[in-house]
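@channel sequence for tomorrow's demo:
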Amino acid sequence: MTEEKKIKVLTISDHPFSPSGVGTQTKYVIEALLKTGKFQVISLAGAMKHQNYNAQKTEEWEDDLIVFPVDGYGDPESIRSIIRNQKPDILWFMTDPRFYEWLWSMENEIRPLMPMVYYHVWDNFPAPKFNEAFYSSNDFVATISKVTDEIVRIVSPNVDREYVPHAVDEKWFKKIDKEKIEKNRKIFFKENLLDDNGDEKMVFFWNNRNARRKQSGSLIWWYKEFLDKVGYDKAILMMHTEPKDQNGQDLEAIIQELGLVNGEVIFSLEKVDPDHLAQVYNAADCTINISDAEGFGLATLESLSCGTPILVNMTGGLQEQVTDGESWFGIGIEPCSKAVIGSQQVPYIYEDRVHKDDFLESIEKMYTAWKDNTEEYQQWSERGIEHVKKNYNFDNFEKQWVKIMENIHEKHGSWETRKGYKSWELREVV
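structure tokens (generated this afternoon):
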């Protein structure tokens, strides 16, 4: 009896062992497939600096997972080489569509051999109609948020798509007992934890890459104005990021300029495991994300799963995390304006921006709710946990991706069994 041939999937995304939200979700999808024993994965792992470019394997998955570090997200030649040597059955790729213009231009080379599956993480309203060619170049589009799903429906109604939201592993991201939280707060924040009266300060947590659209510099500036009102000894802002990221601002210089040099803002620089990160979420009193554009915002979902309320910009996937339309799990700030960004390849993308005054009003409301331990603040925490369990269940996420990939393989085939796609042909003009 011959062993059934495994379905081979080529992934292109952030490195699956990187701490980015895209990298984490890529790892979750890969592991979901490998756990079944029915798949093999070749991963082009980008979006980070590499120490070497040799193929990598893990002890756990051995030959079923091969990781090839690449610059950016790869290029036409790397894709051609992998396809020729590995003969994958499905191409799966994820992140901002702007990074894949070169890949979609290769549609006629790739799709005759295998289906292309895109996990679409971000677009914004008004719907970007120029993306129709991108969306239509795929056999299947998985959409990360209800916003993105609606955009794909409007722009490319004939494209096969399915809403597949992110999920967090509740094995790690969960509420821990109060005694451990208090112990961790003393460890994490040390002498900075108590105010001048000996009472504990409120802890705000920011877990993002230090990139322009994340508004890290604006957050520090506005946070300083918040302290001007409530007192410099009343709160701590912990930023889990690289303060001198080449794609962002020099946050240490901003802190020095604003005079926040007495523990008002502290940095967490280490790449920590999920268990440690979950303990930080539990130790915080509120997680902030005021990014101009956020496909989903994994950090806020992790925070909710740990019972920590969130303060977010009502953009992209953040808006469906902070409220389900009836209950709230923190405070959402309505954007006051849209900015148009783009490139030579992508004409326009809209970014939602919040106003400083709206942020200050919201953070003061959060601070008061925490200080007074209001029923509303307690409900944000309790309901947030239930919201994650109901709408972002990790087991359902894994099952959904396995089913999608099995169905795609059965429906479309690959190589000799390829179905449902006919490439264009060059014909002689007589």
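heads up for whoever presents: The chain has a mean pLDDT of 90.
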